[in-house]
Structures are given as C-alpha cells and as structure tokens.
Amino acid sequence: MFSVDRPEEAPEGLSKGHDSKDVVEKLEEIFHGKCYLCEFKDTLQPEVEHFIPQSLDSELAKDWDNLFYSCRRCNSIKSSKPEPLLDCTKEDVFSAILLDLPLRKTRLIEVSVNEGYESERAKNTAALLTLCYNREESGYQKITRSLLRDMLHRYLDKYSEYTSVLLDSESGKREKLRAEDKLERMLQPDFAFHAFWRGIFLDDEKLMKNYNHLLDPE
Ligand SMILES: [Zn+2]
Q1: Which residues does 77 contact at the CB level (< 8 Å), separation at least 6?
Q2: Which protein residues have their CB within 5 A of the ion that is ligand 1?
Q3: What is the 98 CA–ligand 1 centroid distance (Å)?
Q4: How far apart are CA 101 and CA 58, in angstroms?
Q5: Which residue, of 6, 21, 150, 174, is most buried by count of CB atoms within 10 Å of its CB?
Q6: What is the rounded end-to-end Cα distance, in angstroms, of the chain?
Q7: Residue 129 Cα to ligand 1 middle (Å)
Q8: Which of 150, 164, 161, 155 is nearest to 196 (CA)?
Q9: Cβ partners under 8 Å of residue 109, min gap 6
Q10: 70-79 pLDDT tens trace
Q11: What is the pLDDT of residues 92-150, one digit of tens each?
Q12: 0.90 cut: is pTM over it?
C-alpha cells in the first residue's frame, strides 16, 4: 500500500455526485492512477470506492474524505467486507503491511502486519489484501488474478535485472547509472505495486548499504 496526500478542499462537482468528472480526475491524480488496495496502475476499469460503505452511513456517499480510487476487482472484493481498515490518506500504511510475492505463481501472495503495527484495522487490511491479491472464486476473478500475477512477475523480473546490474562487479558505469535510475523509479509511491519492490529492497543488506539513496531521492 502507499500513502496519499489528499487536498482538504473537495472538487466542486462532488455536490452532483461521487463520480462527477472532476472528482474522478482529482482522485486519479492524487492516487497516482493506482488502486489504493492492490496498487495496480492505470487500470482500464477505475472505480470510486467508498472507504466506509454507503450502506453503513448514507451521509458518507458524498464525503470527500471517504472517496478512494480503486480497480474494479478490489472494489467488488471489498464490498462484502465492511470491517474498518487502515486509511492510506491518514497513516503510514506501507510500514504497517508486509507483502511477500512467491516466485511460483501458484503460491499465494502473503500479506501480514508488520511488528509494532498490530491493530484490529491492520489485521482487517491484511486480510482484505490477501483476498485482493489471491482470490479466484469466480471465473472473472480467476482471470483478473492471473493477469495481476503476470504483471507482478514482469515487474519482479525487471527489479531482478536492475539489482543484479548494481550488484555485479563487472557492470560498467553507464550500465549502473541506468539501473539506478530505473530502480529508483520502482521504489517510489507512484510506481505500480511499489510496496513489493520497496519491501524487497529494504530487506536486502547489500543494496541498502550502497544504494539506500534510491529510496528517497531529493
Ligand atoms: Zn485493486
């Protein structure tokens, strides 16, 4: 997950409805075009998601702070789960949630709560993300899960390509600069599935020793 800076002022069109053009465009911008749950970027099926379901409080249907940008898959999976979650516009969700992407595609992506961040909401969030990344109950979910997983593994291959250039003593200066540049992009909150790449990077002692400046460039 990634943190989002939400401007205080709601777009004007919100008075007309939560999916007014300017509302959707503003959400797309502040969420970097990413689903706030699975971090899929530039989905063909974006949706405006009510963080606290409208069914629990109809007042929140047009509440700016309650509107989130999500993909259709995650929105439909979350709709059956009204439990309170971590709020990426208000807290450090990246640090709270740990993601583990196994190399074998048939294995489930594991989502857990990081030490020191245990709470009911963190637990609910990890449980929901486990479903978002893995659920394949219906025919559509089987297809979208497989597409999501293929996409993740394509990025993982790129991550491995760049990091092996950086860790290889035979790599040239220009080669390394390019790899640094590419890797730095992958580690930023606006990059697709950034929490996976940032998480693996933070666990890598060798990379952290020599390239930790890539995490937070000026
Ligand atoms: Zn999603």
Answers
A1: 128, 131, 132, 135, 141
A2: 35, 37-38, 40, 71, 74
A3: 17
A4: 37
A5: 6
A6: 22
A7: 9
A8: 155
A9: 99, 100, 101, 102, 130, 133, 134, 149, 152
A10: 999 999 999 8
A11: 999 999 999 999 999 999 999 999 999 999 999 999 999 999 999 999 999 999 999 99
A12: yes
**Long-range contacts at 7-12 (CB < 8 A, ≥ 24 apart):** 10/64, 11/64
Rounded to a whole number of angstroms, the CA Rg of the chain reads 18
- Residue 41 carries which DSSP code? B
Q: Kindly give the distance from the C-alpha atom of residue 171 to the centroid of ligand 1, in angstroms, as a whole number.
A: 37
Residues 6 or more apart in contact with residue 13 via CB below 8 angstroms: 20, 21, 22, 23
> Measured in angstroms, how far is the CA atom of residue 101 from the centroid of ligand 1?
16
Instruction: Spell out the residues 6+ positions from residue 97 whose beta carbon is closer than 8 angstroms to its own.
Output: 1, 86, 111, 112, 113, 114, 117, 122, 125, 126, 129, 195
